[in-house]
Amino acid sequence: MPLKFELCPGRMIGGNHPCFIIAEIGQNHQGDLDTAKKMIRMAKDCGADCAKFQKSELEHKFNRRALERPYTSKHSWGKTYGEHKRHLEFSHEQYKELQKYAAEVGIFFTASGMDEMAVEFLHELDVPFFKVGSGDTNNFPYLEKTAQKGRPMVVSSGMQSMETMRRVYQTVKKHNQNFCILQCTSAYPLEAEDVNLRVITEYQKEFPDIPIGYSGHESGISITVAAVALGAKVVERHVTLDKSWKGSDHAASLEPGELAELVKAIRTVERALGSGVKHMLPCEVPCHDKLGKSVVAKSAISKGTELTLDLLTVKVAEPKGVAPEDIFQLVGKKVLVDIGEDESVTEDAVESYGKKAKV
């Protein structure tokens, strides 16, 4: 069984525990605190387990030239990339307010720490787990420092190779047993042919002692549902209140109706996965009673006759007789009573075949 651990207080992941669903608000709040709160409430109302943001300390994530470069995209909130990012970045006090609001609403709250100083702040904020975005997955000094803090971790794997992910696993595992890895392709929006869901099963083989999950940027919900069917124990999807809003992430995000449908579909799939044990279920008994077949006499069989296959056939019969899968066990046994043509061959009618004989 995959490792099970407590990702958030009272909420286990892995094994047979329900898939943990992260609503990635990211920076789709447009830099507006009230909008961010509405999105937290929306995530809760739709059934997600966690509302997640992205926290950066911009001077630690970007160098000066990156912040000063002109940013003329239709999605821009400023003349430079730095102005754009500052518009979307909440202060420490605003994060505390959002965390408090999430607690009031009743949903877990965390953020991706997009640089080491952001991780330090989130650690002080006492988030339940750290999310490592794909851009930092191969940032091994960052990974080590984050893992050493001892909080559970969810690590995305966009833009990485399997060789790098093996290093990631070894690096985190050395300091922290409680983490999971998400299959992810970093494209927005993501085309189906680039999703590569089979990596989930490869991760399950490579890292059998940790839960594996999926972070998706595709349109719609079907691929994420398929990831759960493949065994994803954590899923993350970007969410928005309106896909037409300014911002490059909105097009790859789920609106409230889609998020609610995703949660519902995931919970349905989890119920459908079952135990893996194959046996006749109680719900199948009415169908078996109506249409289940039995062994019947192909022609009249006199008492004392030794049974051969050419004396027997299989039909839906009343009363129920010997089950078809046992027909070969009847060969060579004598019948204890006369059996008419087309009549059921019951267990009690065959020598050494009744319930007492079987026992």
From TrEMBL:
Gene Ontology terms for molecular function: N-acylneuraminate-9-phosphate synthase activity
Origin superkingdom: Eukaryota
UniProt KW keywords: Transferase
GO-annotated biological processes: carbohydrate biosynthetic process; carbohydrate derivative biosynthetic process; N-acetylneuraminate metabolic process
Domain AFP-like: 294-353
Catalytic reaction equation(s): aldehydo-N-acetyl-D-mannosamine 6-phosphate + phosphoenolpyruvate + H2O = N-acetylneuraminate 9-phosphate + phosphate
InterPro entries listed in its UniProt record: AFP_Neu5c_C_sf, Aldolase_TIM, PseI-like, PseI/NeuA/B-like_N, SAF, SAF_AFP_Neu5Ac, SAF_PseI/NeuA/NeuB
EC number: 2.5.1.57
SUPFAM superfamilies with a match to the protein in the record: AFP III-like domain, Aldolase
Enzyme category, top tier: transferase
PROSITE patterns: AFP_LIKE
PANTHER family: N-ACETYLNEURAMINATE SYNTHASE, SIALIC ACID SYNTHASE
Designated name of the protein: N-acetylneuraminate-9-phosphate synthase
Organism: Astyanax mexicanus (Blind cave fish)
